[in-house]
Design brief:
The chain has 130 residues and is α+β, with helices and mostly antiparallel strands. The chain has a single domain (12-128), classed as Heat Shock Protein 90 (2-Layer Sandwich), CATH 3.30.565. Helix content is 31%, strand content 25%. It comes from Actinomadura decatromicini.
Amino acid sequence: MSPAVLAPEVPTLVLEPDGRAAGRARRFVAARFAEWGIADDEIGRLVVSELVTNAYVHGEGRIVVRVFVDERDRLPVVEVWDGGAKLPFIPAADCTATSGRGLLLVAELVRAWGVRPLNEGGKITWAKLH
């Protein structure tokens, strides 16, 4: 019988839902990418900023950010959890709107993204970077 293999700890940041959350999340992602030797963290910082801002504006409760490298393809993944039931979506194009383009921008910059409602309430919005 082989010994049990423990999964490595996933870096996690718990944020209060306030105007400083996105900045803290950007610094968290930058530090993780630096630890992993990923020199270009610009897309990661932008993605986490948009997802955390959506959680702050449209979600509920504390915001949890997790960042890890998918072992199957070695690509970084950003997950943002909040307690709200409202699922994010990309709205129809509106050239007169002054907001509402963040998720569209994220979708264009990442390999894949999505949202998972959680049985215990809330949801996780995730993005896999290139």
